[in-house]
Specification:
The protein is α+β, with helices and mostly antiparallel strands. The protein has helices at residues 5-30, 50-61, 98-117, and strands spanning 37-38, 48-49, 67-77, 83-92, 122-129. 41% of the residues lie in helices and 23% in strands. The protein has a three-stranded mixed β-sheet with strand order 3-4-5, with helices on one face. The protein has a two-stranded antiparallel ribbon with strand order 1-2. Strand 4 (83-92), helix 3 and strand 5 form a beta-alpha-beta unit. Helix 2 (50-61) runs antiparallel to helix 3. The longest helix is centred in the first third of the chain and has 26 residues, at 5-30. The protein is flat, with a radius of gyration of 26 Å. It starts with a helix and ends in a 14-residue tail after the last strand.
């Protein structure tokens, strides 16, 4: 007489795997794509790509010689896809008054992108990364 327990365990494992595959399939089929363009003032006939806005934001951020822009991330916000939010990672080459440097960069980015869009709809967040790296050397004895 064969024991039915291994058959039950295999059937349960196969059921769990099948449910996982089904969940991943439905998640991929019904996932919303992140928008790649902004519709200024909610106007559906006008599209401005995030790449163009990111380029404009980078140019505005790099106008000051005291900063080096490392990375810019843009995301579309709002139910009508009319707003864009920037996260700017930069390195301050001058350690004096970094707060005013960040505020000035934020204002330049928002003004330049709002001018490009023709309507207010830009928010920028500036994060300064560490500008100095330190290296530690440790001597190890030959024992």
């Amino acid at each position: 007489m064969r024991d039915p327990m291994p058959r039950i365990v295999v059937t349960v494992c196969a059921g769990v795997v099948a449910l996982g595959v089904l969940a991943v399939f439905f998640r991929l089929m019904f996932a919303r794509r992140e928008p790649s363009c902004v519709h200024p003032a909610g106007e559906r006939n006008i599209e401005v790509t995030l790449a163009a806005l990111s380029s404009c934001a980078r140019a505005a951020a790099e106008r000051d010689d005291r900063v080096m822009v490392e990375h810019i991330e843009a995301r579309v916000q709002g139910s009508d896809e009319s707003h864009v939010r920037f996260k700017v990672d930069a390195i301050a080459l001058d350690d004096h008054d970094v707060a005013s440097l960040a505020i000035a960069m934020q204002q330049r980015i928002e003004e330049a992108c709002d001018t490009m869009l023709g309507t207010p709809g830009t928010t920028a967040r500036v994060c300064f990364l560490p500008s100095k790296t330190t290296a530690q050397t440790v001597e190890v004895s030959g024992e």
